[in-house]
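Table 4 source record.
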Amino acid sequence: MVEEVIGADHVKVRCVDGATRVCRIPGKFRRRVWMNEGDVVLVVPWDFQPSKGDIVHRYSRDEVRKLIQQGLISQEFIESVGAF
């Protein structure tokens, strides 16, 4: 979940595993998908530096509801950030 938009195509993301990572917005998302605080995103951590990663996908509200129903994300995690 996006906590803060840092700038220069980087955001601070809080992951389900409890880690806070600085993630890069890749070129295919830069002008097509806008990242805001509270957005639920899919992050791939870097192998050589686990405190950083790349954003692979931004979920819509309907997709987030489906993830909660399937048990992949807990409702408490979403409410703790205050996104929904």
